[in-house]
């Protein structure tokens, strides 16, 4: 009898992995923006065309890459962010899997321009469906620009599954907002088809919230903070009167990573009980800071779900922080949000 098992070629393995990492233009945008933040950027520009179907480009002023690293960054499991399995329990960066660029380059035409701080020349790299088409030294600004063109050009079934432009655009804006909210000290812009959607200067969180969601939030935010030995909470919640009937804007970040968690959402909703109608949704942007050894962010490929080793304590602290903020809000004079 003959053996029938063989290893898949890299290009195919990457394409399969891409199925997990890149579902739509917004997933590529998320990965690129997170890489820019991980690279220490203070200014991040996003440019999309055709709701990301034609182009998703992120330009940063971060630390850039050497020519070898630029090439390496597209290999699967290639990362500068962790080295040992111990590091998995102390993750402070967004990335650590070393999968995003390899996956994106497997299903798109990618052009990277990058230059390290202080270097004379940078690198231009073009990759199409995992195949390197061009690699040469070029004069470019410091930092990194990655343009992802024609996503799923070589996977027609996936391309056909993309939704209408307004729907894909909504997803892009959602991802953009999440990253922009968690880094108010970083300046962000967002352009689609040469139209400016967001121009967010760096500043305080309250300033960023108003920049993203509009002036109606000015004066409607209550600061929320709690400091315990196990975790810290900070952020803003909306005054009860500003709660919306439609499910409004609600954000949890754990160590600056956006997460979805119904249990913790319930902690906030519970604290509002009796203050807002049962069918209204409070606004909140809450940051939980916790020792990375108490969480596991390795449970989901897109990492919007994480595990806490003691979820009940986190629930309790959030609920009491929100309750306290709401109580304080009743007795305190109107807060001054000098922007
Ligand atoms: P991960 O972020 O999990 O490490 P990625 O595939 O997203 O994996 O990126 C691979 C590597 O490429 C990163 O670890 C980083 O060293 C480098 N890299 C990616 N994007 C940038 C960027 N915008 N600026 C500087 N380095 C980057
Ligand atoms: Mg990454």
TrEMBL record:
The keyword Nucleotide-binding does not apply. The keyword DNA-binding does not apply. Keywords: DNA damage, DNA repair. GO terms for molecular function: ATP binding; ATP hydrolysis activity; ATP-dependent DNA damage sensor activity; mismatched DNA binding. Residues 209-327 form the DNA mismatch repair protein S5 domain. One of its GO terms (biological process) is mismatch repair. It comes from the Bacteria. One of its GO terms (cellular component) is mismatch repair complex. This protein is involved in the repair of mismatches in DNA. It is required for dam-dependent methyl-directed DNA mismatch repair. May act as a 'molecular matchmaker', a protein that promotes the formation of a stable complex between two or more DNA-binding proteins in an ATP-dependent manner without itself being part of a final effector complex. Belongs to the DNA mismatch repair MutL/HexB family. This is DNA mismatch repair protein MutL. It comes from Mongoliitalea lutea. The gene is mutL. The chain holds residues 1 to 339 of 632 of the full protein.
């Amino acid at each position: 009898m003959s053996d029938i098992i063989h290893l898949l070629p890299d290009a195919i393995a990457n394409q399969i992995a891409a199925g997990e990492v890149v579902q739509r233009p917004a997933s590529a945008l998320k990965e690129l923006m997170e890489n820019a933040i991980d690279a220490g950027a203070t200014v991040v520009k996003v440019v999309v065309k055709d709701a990301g179907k034609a182009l998703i480009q992120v330009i940063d002023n971060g630390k850039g890459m050497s020519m070898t690293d630029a090439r390496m960054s597209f290999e699967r499991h290639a990362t500068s962010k962790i080295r040992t399995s111990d590091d998995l329990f102390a993750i402070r960066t967004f990335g650590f899997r070393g999968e995003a660029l390899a996956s994106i380059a497997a299903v798109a035409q990618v052009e990277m321009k990058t230059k390290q701080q202080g270097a004379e020349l940078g690198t231009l790299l073009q990759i199409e469906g995992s195949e390197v088409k061009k690699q040469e030294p070029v004069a470019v600004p410091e930092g990194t620009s990655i343009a992802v063109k024609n996503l799923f050009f070589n996977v027609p079934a996936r391309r056909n599954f993309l939704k209408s432009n307004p729907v894909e655009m909504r997803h892009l804006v959602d991802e953009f907002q999440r990253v922009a909210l968690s880094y108010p000290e970083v300046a962000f812009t967002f352009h689609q088809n040469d139209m400016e959607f967001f121009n967010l200067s760096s500043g305080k969180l309250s300033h960023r919230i108003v920049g993203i969601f509009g002036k109606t939030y000015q004066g409607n935010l209550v600061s929320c903070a709690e400091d315990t030995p196990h975790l810290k909470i900070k952020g803003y919640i909306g005054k009860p009167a500003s709660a919306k009937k439609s499910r409004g804007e609600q954000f949890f970040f754990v160590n600056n990573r956006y997460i979805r968690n119904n249990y913790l959402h319930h902690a906030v909703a519970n604290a509002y009980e009796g203050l807002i109608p049962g069918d209204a949704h409070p606004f909140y942007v809450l940051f939980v800071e916790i020792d990375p050894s108490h969480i596991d962010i390795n449970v989901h490929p897109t990492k919007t779900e994480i595990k806490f080793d003691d979820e009940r304590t986190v629930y309790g602290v959030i609920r009491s922080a929100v309750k306290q903020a709401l109580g304080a809000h009743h007795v305190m004079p109107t807060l001054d949000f000098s922007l």
